[in-house]
Amino acid sequence: MNLSTKDYIYEKILPKVEKPGRYIGTEWNSVHKDLNDINIRFAFCFPDSYEVGMSHLGMKILYHLLNDQKDIYCERVFAPWPDMEKVMREEGIKLFALESRDYIKDFDFVGFTLQYEMSYTNIINMLDLADIPKLSSQRGEKDPFVVAGGPCAYNPEPLAEIIDFFMLGEGEEQMLEVMDVYRQWKAAGLKRKELLHMVSQIPGVYVPAFYDVTYNSDNTIESIKPNRDGVPAKIKKRVVKNLNKAYFPDKIIVPFIDIVHDRIMLEIFRGCTRGCRFCQAGMIYRPVRERTLEELESIAEKLVESSGYEEISLSSLSTGDYSKLHQLVEKLMSKYSKDRIGLSLPSLRIDSISLKLLQDVQKVRKSGLTFAPEAGTQRLRDVINKNVTEEDLINSVGAAFDSGYSGVKLYFMIGLPTETMEDVEGIADLGNKVLDRYYQVPKAQRGKGVNVTISTSCFVPKPFTPFQWEPQDTIESMREKQKHLQQLLRRKGLTYNWHDPELSYLEAVFARGDRKLSKVLIRAWELGCKFDSWDQYFNYEAWLKAFEDCGIDPDFYTIRKRDFEEVLPWNHIDVGITKKYLRSEYKKAIKGETTRDCRIACTGCGINLLQEGGVCK
Amino acid sequence: MINLRLKFTKGPETKYISHLDLMRTFQRALRRAHIPIHYTEGFNPHPSMSFASALGIGVTSIGEYLDVALEEEIPEKDIMERLNETLPKGLEIVDAAVLKDKAKSAMALVTDARYSIELVFKDVIDLEDKLKDFMAQSNIVVPKEQPKKNFETVDVDIKPMIREIKVESKGNQNVILGCVLACGSKANLKPQLLIEALKKYMGDIFEVKEIKRIELYANIDHELVPLSLVDRK
Question: Taking the complete model, does pTM exceed 0.90, yes or no?
Answer without folding.
Answer: yes
